[in-house]
Amino acid sequence: MIYGGQDQPKELTTGTILPKVNVELFNRVLEDFAREFQLGEDKHIILTIDRAGWHTSSELKIPLGLHLEYLPPYSPELQPAERLWPLINEPIANRSFTSLEELEEILFERCQVLLTQQFAIKAITQYHWWPKIQV
């Protein structure tokens, strides 16, 4: 599973590839995210996410400085990151793989390439109506 995000004002994209989705791994992603962006009492980020079960669990441990904003139910078209899937999936479309490791390696390489193409990512993920909040 690819966990990813984009800092709209700074045009920075980040991502993590993990073997599955669950609350425990999502907590680790949130912890890593907070550490990477140095969140805390003096620095806050609003993270917009969908309502997947692991995003809404009572077992979530939300780091200090991170605030979750949930999209309306059943509205994947509102999530800018959803538009990245076609770009991510290009090298794996219509292919079969001999192992999960082979698939993960190709996805990892694809994500590395996409991280160098911030303009392309911005072009498909920055909605004109998305609020641009910067303090």
TrEMBL record:
One of its GO terms (molecular function) is nucleic acid binding. It comes from the Bacteria. Residues 7-103 form the Tc1-like transposase DDE domain. The lineage of its organism: Bacteria, Bacillati, Cyanobacteriota, Cyanophyceae, Oscillatoriophycideae. Pfam families: DDE_3. InterPro entries: RNaseH_sf, Tc1-like_DDE_dom. This is Tc1-like transposase DDE domain-containing protein.
